[in-house]
Amino acid sequence: MGEVLGVCGRDPMTAVLWLDSKRGARMLLKHPALTIIGSLALAPAIAIGLVGAKVAGKVLYKRMELEPMNNIVLVHGAFVDGGHWESVYKILKRDGHSISVVQNPTITLEDDVTVTRRVLATQKGPAILVGHSYGGAVITEAGNDPKVTALVYIAAFVPDRGESVATLTKDSPPGAPESPMLPPQDGFLFLDKAKFAASYAADVDLDKAAFWADSQLPWGVECLNGAISEPAWRSKPSWYLVATEDRRIPPDAQRAMAKRAGSTVVEAKGSHAIYFSQPNAVAALIEQAVSKDNGSSVASRE
Measured between alpha carbons, how far is residue 294 from residues 42, 107, 110, 297 in Å? Predict the structure, then answer.
């Protein structure tokens, strides 16, 4: 029959919603005197339909309104902008999701959290936050927003209370690649252009990686040192995609952070730019989070 998502409605007429293999949904009306004669398909936004049932020979109709969690907010990392999410954006958009892409100034963590919350404020209903790299620190703090129901980390930092990206990268594990980060310039950081491709985008077309290297956004030292006050992953479910060929955040470090956060973990072969080189794998994990989150959010809604 499919995966049960939850229960909505009030007695004596209770509707049980489940997801079928075609990503639709049906309604079962549970009552001793009722027999099912109707079904309802989930639309990308709010699904509205009439469910009919026979009671003592008469046909009754109950208008049901379901609001599946469909909002996804994408948060970029350091040295790049939101345009790097384009391939993932197109897949999620094609699948019917409502997508917003944050353009963080990357001057301070506090500013980036504020900008992300501003985007969250525009969402009609609950949302899932997705962060790549330093964007993981941003969503860890911004994820405390009441609209956020789940977090998805893509080869990202997952700081705990009082931690920053700086504290997480202070002691490199043995055998870790040498950081291509240059000394600060006027309070901002850049990656060495000559080392950018090998470190950040080893599985990306060389011309594309070269363009990224030449068009880096300055990353504020205050972003690096910004500490988390309250990690959202302590109170909300999370998912993590480990990039197994990452030379910016060692895969073992990714696994350790994901384990500490209690994240659902998936691994895929890819560089730190896995959102670009493996957009299908990234989109699939985000949609897994959306699907699971719909189960809890629909169940709690009447």
Answer: 11, 34, 30, 5
Residue 5's SS3 state is strand
Q: For 103-162, write each residue's pLDDT tens digit.
A: 999 999 999 999 999 999 999 999 999 999 999 999 999 999 999 999 999 999 999 999
Which comes out higher in pLDDT, residue 251 or 175? 251
44 and 84: one domain?
no
Number of domains present in the structure of the chain:
2
Reply yes or no on whether 238 is catalytic. Answer: no
Pair 235, 277 in one domain:
yes
- For 56-87, b/e burial (b = at least 16 CB within 10 A) is eeeeeeeebebbbbbbbbbbbbbbbbbebbeb
| Domain, as residue range, for 122 | 71-298
Instruction: Name the residue among 178, 214, 174 with its Cα closest to residue 194.
Output: 214
Q: How many CB atoms lie within 10 A of CB 184?
A: 14
| Overall average pLDDT of the 43-56 stretch | 36
| Domain boundary pick from 19, 46, 66 | 66
Exposed, middle or buried: residue 52 (CB in 10 Å: 0-12, 13-18, 19+)? middle
Same domain, 184 and 279: yes
- What is the distance between the alpha carbons of residues 169 and 178, in angstroms, rounded to a whole number? 12
Q: In whole angstroms, give the CA distance from residue 288 to residue 263.
A: 13
Residue of 98, 133, 291, 297 marked catalytic = 133
Question: How sure is the predictor about 20, in pLDDT bands with cuts at 50, 70 and 90?
Answer: very low
Whether pLDDT at 197 is above 60: yes
- The SS3 of residue 197 is helix
Residue 66, pLDDT > 90, answer no
C-alpha distances out from residue 301 to 15, 89, 187, 212, 296, Å: 12, 28, 47, 44, 9
Global model pTM greater than 0.70: yes
Cβ contacts of 177 within 8 Å, gap of 6 or more: 199, 247, 248, 250
